[in-house]
């Protein structure tokens, strides 16, 4: 066995027909068929150098086993000390290449975390895995309105036009809530309907923040309301309030939080190794853009891979991918 989780167990095996080393993902019996079918559907459609490939699958009665491409890798706890300099750049760049490919195909991953990006520091190659929570990008139909536009639109409603009965049969607002605690974007924690692919960029930003601070995971609270307080303590209450307005939600904190902290100062304060091993200064602008709580101001995956931080390695990825993942000249 090489991995286990709530939804599955993963084994290393030899494919008898080809002699290749493969990974067997045995789906746990308690996982609903919808999630299993969803993962199979997306893996059959997606093809990219940094996305794990589905070889075949087997079904015996109600048990489903996926035969996957085997990805040599280190567990993220052993990998973290090796993520320095150019290796860190390759790690984040390849992760974002996979995410940008998904977003270009109108897919949101919804569970970006270190355990779902398998990376081998010896070969500097990584692959994104686990597509059970993937969703089609619904933001094409439900768009966000910039925060400044909302502030102009908001006007008080006269009391004589408000009838309490109009709220009695109103259904609860429920937005998609997928992902792993610590890596979930603030708009998801607020149960916003109008979620965009940028929720994956937030999660990747938390991974980068965790690496730079040497804290896994940087955010750790399980309850949504407490997790929002954690984010507010780091990025400031006002920015979280603006996020709520932009996503048409309401939020109230139990106590006032100070203004936003500089993420560079936070990282240096948490990780003394950064003084001995300084990083490329461009990384701080990248980190701030990925961890912008207001969705319309947050970097998109395309903006991340085009960021100057990756300029010195981008030439090593001398290909441009079309929607099927094939190389274009």
Automatic annotation (TrEMBL):
Keywords: ATP-binding, Kinase, Nucleotide-binding, Serine/threonine-protein kinase, Transferase. One of its GO terms (molecular function) is ATP binding. ATP binds at residue 25. Belongs to the protein kinase superfamily. It holds the Pfam family Pkinase. The keyword Hydrolase does not apply. GO terms for cellular component: nucleus. Its EC number is 2.7.11.1. SMART domains: S_TKc. The keyword Nucleotide-binding applies. It is an enzyme of class 2 (transferase). Residues 1-310 form the Protein kinase domain. PROSITE patterns: PROTEIN_KINASE_ATP, PROTEIN_KINASE_DOM, PROTEIN_KINASE_ST. This is non-specific serine/threonine protein kinase. It comes from Tritrichomonas foetus. Transmembrane segments: none annotated. GO terms for biological process: mitotic DNA damage checkpoint signaling.
């Amino acid at each position: 066995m090489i991995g286990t989780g709530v939804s599955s167990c993963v084994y290393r095996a030899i494919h008898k027909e080809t002699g290749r080393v493969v990974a067997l993902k045995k789906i746990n019996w308690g996982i609903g068929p919808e999630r299993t079918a969803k993962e199979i559907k997306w893996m059959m459609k997606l093809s990219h150098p940094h996305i794990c490939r589905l070889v075949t699958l087997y079904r015996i009665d109600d048990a489903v086993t996926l035969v996957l491409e085997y990805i040599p890798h280190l567990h993220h706890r052993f990998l973290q000390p090796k993520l320095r300099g150019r290796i860190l750049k390759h790690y984040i760049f390849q992760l974002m290449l996979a995410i940008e490919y998904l977003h270009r195909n109108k897919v949101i991953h919804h569970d970006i975390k270190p355990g779902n990006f398998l990376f081998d520091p010896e070969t500097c190659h990584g692959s994104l895995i686990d597509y059970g929570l993937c969703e089609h990008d619904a933001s094409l139909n439900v768009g966000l309105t910039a925060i400044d536009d909302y502030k102009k639109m908001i006007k008080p409603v006269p009391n004589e036009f408000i009838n309490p009965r109009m709220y009695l049969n109103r259904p609860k607002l429920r937005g998609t809530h997928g992902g792993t605690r610590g890596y979930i974007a603030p708009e998801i924690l607020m149960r916003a309907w109008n979620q965009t692919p940028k929720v994956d960029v937030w999660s990747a930003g938390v991974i980068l923040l965790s690496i730079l601070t040497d804290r896994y995971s940087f955010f750790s609270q399980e309850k949504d309301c407490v997790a929002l307080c954690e984010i507010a303590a780091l990025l400031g209450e006002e920015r979280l309030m603006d996020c709520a307005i932009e996503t048409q939600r309401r939020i109230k904190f139990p106590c006032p939080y100070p203004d936003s902290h500089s993420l560079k100062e936070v990282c240096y304060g948490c990780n003394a190794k950064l003084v001995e091993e300084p990083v490329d200064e461009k990384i701080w602008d990248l980190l701030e853009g990925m961890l912008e709580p207001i969705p319309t101001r947050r970097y998109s995956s395309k903006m991340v891979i085009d960021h100057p931080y990756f300029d010195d390695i981008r030439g090593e990825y001398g290909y441009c991918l079309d929607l099927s993942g094939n190389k274009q000249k």
